C-alpha cells in the first residue's frame, strides 16, 4: 500500500522544510506517489520516529507503549532471556528495538543486590568478562553493556571492565557502560568505551573527565529522567548535561524507562522520552539539538543506517505532530499520527 502524505513540514535535522509530500511505500519512504492514497497533513510537522537510547524492555507490550508515543525504536540496555528476545525480533505494527541482552555486573553492587539478574551476569575475573561477551555474541546481541561502579562500590573491577570493553571491540561490537557516580565515571571513561550512560548523581562531572571523554570521542546518554524520579531535579544534574554539551560531547536522548520491581523510581516507556527532550532543552540544548539527539544522532551512533531521517529508501518510522517542535520542544507531545515501518499505529 502506498500513501502520499501531503502538506507536511519535514524535520530534516536542521529545521523544517516548506510544506511538501512524503510517500510511504510499504515499510519504507518512497519517491513515487503514482497510485498512492493521499492523506492531507494539514501543515503539521513530520519527524523521523523517535529513538530512546536507553531503556529496559519487558515484553511485546513495551514495544506497543513506545509506539503509541512515537518512539519507534528502543535501545534496550538489559533484557533476557535470549528466547524472549528472539521471539520479539522483527515484530510488525509496533516499535523496533536493539538490545545488549544480559549486562555485566559485579558481585556486590546495587544491580546485584536489587535486581533479579541471573548469576551469569556477575563477572569477577577478566576471563569471566570475556566469556560473558562471547555468550552475548553467540546470542546475537547488538552491543555490550557493563555496569561500572566506583572502586569499593561492589561493581566489576577496573581490570574486568577493561576486559569487557576490549573483548567487545575485538568482536566488532560497541560498548555501553553504566556510570552513575563521579568515581564510576572516571573508571568508565578510562576504558575507551563507546558510550557512557547516565550522569553522576553525586555532583557535577569533573572537567578533566569531560576532557578525556572528548579526546576519546565518547558519547553520553544522560537519562536525566531516572535521576529526577529518584532524587528530584537537582541543579547538578542539568549542570552536568550543560557541561558535557558545552564541551562538545555528543549527548543522546535516553530515559532508563523500565517497569522493574524493586527499583525506587518510575519512568514510563514512550511518554518519558518527550519529558527527557524537555529536560535536555532546560540544560541548554536547542530544540533542534534535542530533536537530533532522539533521531539522526542515535541512529548514526548505533549504526542504524535505515532510520533517523525522513528520506527515500529509509524505514518509514514517522511521527506527525501539530506545531513546530524546533521552536517549542513540548510540541512533540501533540501527536497526530505514528507509523512504524509504514504501518499506521496511531492517529
- Enumerate how many helices there are, as a single number: 12
Give unreliable regions as ranges: none
Q: What is the helical fraction, as a range of percent? A: 25-40%
CATH class group of the largest domain: Alpha Beta
| End-to-end distance | 17 Å
* Rg over C-alpha atoms, rounded to the nearest angstrom: 20 Å
CATH H-level superfamily title of the largest domain: Metal-dependent hydrolases
Shape: globular
CATH architecture descriptor text of the largest domain: Alpha-Beta Barrel
CATH topology description of the largest domain: TIM Barrel
What is the helix/strand order?
EEEEEEHEHEHHEHEHEHEHHEHHHEEE
β content, as a range?
Answer: 15-25%
InterPro entries: Amidohydro-rel, Metal-dep_hydrolase_composite, Metal_Hydrolase, Metallo-dep_Hydrolase
Protein name: Imidazolonepropionase-like amidohydrolase
Keywords: Hydrolase
Domain Amidohydrolase-related: 45-345
Please provide a written account of the structure.
32% of the residues lie in helices and 21% in strands. The protein is an alpha/beta fold. The chain folds into two domains: 2-46 and 307-346, Urease, subunit C, domain 1 (Roll), CATH 2.30.40; 50-301, Alpha-Beta Barrel (TIM Barrel), CATH 3.20.20.140. The strands form three sheets. Strands 1, 2, 3, 4, 5, 14, 15 and 16 form an eight-stranded mixed beta sheet that branches. The radius of gyration is 20 Å and the shape is globular. The mean pLDDT is 95.
Amino acid at each position: 500500500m502506498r500513501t502520499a502524505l501531503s502538506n507536511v513540514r519535514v524535520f530534516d535535522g536542521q529545521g523544517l522544510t516548506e510544506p511538501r509530500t512524503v510517500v510511504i511505500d510499504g515499510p519504507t519512504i518512497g519517491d513515487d506517489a503514482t497510485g498512492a492514497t493521499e492523506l492531507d497533513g494539514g501543515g503539521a510537522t513530520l519527524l523521523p520516529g523517535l529513538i530512546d537510547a536507553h531503556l529496559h524492555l519487558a515484553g511485546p507490550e513495551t514495544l506497543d507503549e513506545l509506539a503509541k508515543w512515537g518512539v519507534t525504536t528502543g535501545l534496550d540496555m538489559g533484557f533476557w532471556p535470549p528466547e524472549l528476545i528472539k521471539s520479539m525480533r522483527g515484530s510488525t505494527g509496533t516499535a523496533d528495538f536493539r538490545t545488549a541482552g544480559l549486562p555485566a555486573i559485579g558481585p556486590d553492587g546495587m544491580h546485584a543486590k536489587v535486581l533479579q539478574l541471573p548469576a551469569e551476569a556477575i563477572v569477577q575475573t577478566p576471563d569471566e568478562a570475556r566469556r560473558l561477551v562471547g555468550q552475548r555474541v553467540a546470542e546475537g546481541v547488538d552491543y555490550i553493556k557493563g555496569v561500572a561502579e566506583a572502586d569499593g562500590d561492589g561493581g566489576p573491577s577496573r581490570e574486568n571492565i577493561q576486559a569487557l570493553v576490549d573483548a567487545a571491540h575485538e568482536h566488532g561490537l560497541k560498548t555501553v557502560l553504566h556510570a552513575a557516580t563521579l568515581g564510576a565515571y572516571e573508571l568508565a571513561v578510562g576504558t575507551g568505551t563507546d558510550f557512557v550512560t547516565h550522569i553522576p548523581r553525586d555532583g557535577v562531572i569533573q572537567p578533566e573527565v569531560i576532557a578525556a571523554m572528548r579526546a576519546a570521542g565518547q558519547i553520553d546518554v544522560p537519562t536525566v529522567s531516572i535521576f529526577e524520579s529518584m532524587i528530584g531535579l537537582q541543579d547538578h544534574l542539568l549542570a552536568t548535561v550543560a557541561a558535557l554539551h558545552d564541551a562538545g560531547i555528543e549527548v543522546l536522548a535516553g530515559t532508563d524507562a523500565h517497569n522493574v520491581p524493586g527499583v525506587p523510581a518510575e519512568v514510563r516507556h514512550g511518554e518519558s522520552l518527550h519529558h527527557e527532550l524537555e529536560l535536555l532543552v532546560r540544560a541548554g540544548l536547542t530544540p533542534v539539538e534535542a530533536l537530533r539527539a532522539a533521531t539522526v544522532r542515535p541512529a548514526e551512533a548505533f549504526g542504524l543506517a535505515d532510520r533517523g531521517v525522513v528520506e527515500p529508501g529509509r524505514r518509514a518510522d514517522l511521527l506527525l505532530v501539530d506545531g513546530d517542535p524546533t521552536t517549542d520542544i513540548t510540541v512533540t507531545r501533540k501527536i497526530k499520527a505514528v507509523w512504524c515501518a509504514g504501518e499506521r499505529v496511531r492517529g
